[in-house]
Amino acid sequence: MAESEHTASETVAQRVDADDTLSLLQDLVRIPSPYFEEEEIVEFVHDWLDEAGLDPEYHRVEEPDITGYEGRNVLARLEGSDPDAPTLLLNAHVDTVKIVDAWEEDPFSGRIEDGKLYGQGACDMKGGLAAVLVAFRILAEAVDAGDLDLAGDLLLTAVVDEEGPYGLGTDRLLRDGLLDDVDAAVVTEPGPILAQSDVSNPALILGARGRFLYDMEIRGRAAHGSQPHKGINAVVDAGRVAETLDGLDVDSHEKLGDGSVCPIKVEGGSQTLSVPERARLMVDRHVVPGESREVVREQAEAAVEALDLDSEVAVGFRESPDPGIKYGPYVTDPDHALVGSLEGATRRVTGVAPETAYFASVGDFNYLGDPDRGNLPTVILGPDGENIHSAGEFVYTDEVVEVTEILVEAAADLLGE
Question: Which pTM does this prediction carry?
Answer without folding.
Answer: 0.94
